[in-house]
Automatic annotation (TrEMBL):
Name of this protein: Glutaredoxin-C6-like
Family classification: Belongs to the glutaredoxin family. CC-type subfamily.
Glutaredoxin domain residues: 48-115
Gene assigned in the entry: LOC113703408
Organism: Coffea arabica (Arabian coffee)
Keywords assigned: Cytoplasm, Redox-active center
CC annotations in GO: cytoplasm
Alphabetical list of Pfam families matching this protein: Glutaredoxin (PF00462)
Length: 147
């Protein structure tokens, strides 16, 4: 993050901010941190996180499914060159969905509790198998509901 050094009102009603690097905030981004390190840090700091390309429709659908069960994931949009820095899933696979579901392109990529789940198809499979909600409860992203 950067700190606001000064600001001023613009004629169109907007605000102009001049930003200066800051390390005093817990949200500060270390510019010397590599893309891989930043992605790993974000994965470890967020129980449910989706890495996506800009304007990814599958990411939107994934967010809607998770929101329907009461989870609001952190969503990070990556530049094309940053997508290659996403860690592979178990056994070195990249999500295996294809068709925009987080397969060979690497995004969208859903991580729950630090583990790569994959893309849209993997999320739906986890949900339909009945394992999604228990996994979300396990990582603290969803409260255990007693019925």
């Amino acid at each position: 993050m950067q700190g606001a050094r000064r600001y001023g009102l613009l004629s169109d009603g907007g605000v102009r901010l001049e930003l200066t690097p800051s390390t005093g905030s817990p949200l500060a981004i270390d510019v010397s941190e590599s893309t891989e390190m930043r992605i790993q840090r974000l994965i470890s700091e967020n129980p449910v996180i989706i890495f996506s390309r800009s304007s990814c429709c599958m990411c939107h659908v994934m967010r809607r499914l998770l929101a329907a069960i009461g989870v609001h994931p952190t969503v990070i949009e990556l530049d094309e060159e940053e997508i290659d820095a996403l860690p592979a899933g178990q056994d070195g696979e990249e999500g295996g969905d294809g068709g925009g579901g987080g397969g060979s392109g690497g995004a969208p990529a859903l991580f729950i509790g630090g583990t790569r789940i994959g893309g849209w198809e993997s999320l739906v499979a986890l949900h339909l198998s009945g394992h999604l909600v228990p996994k979300l409860v396990e990582v603290g992203a969803l409260r255990d509901m007693v019925l």
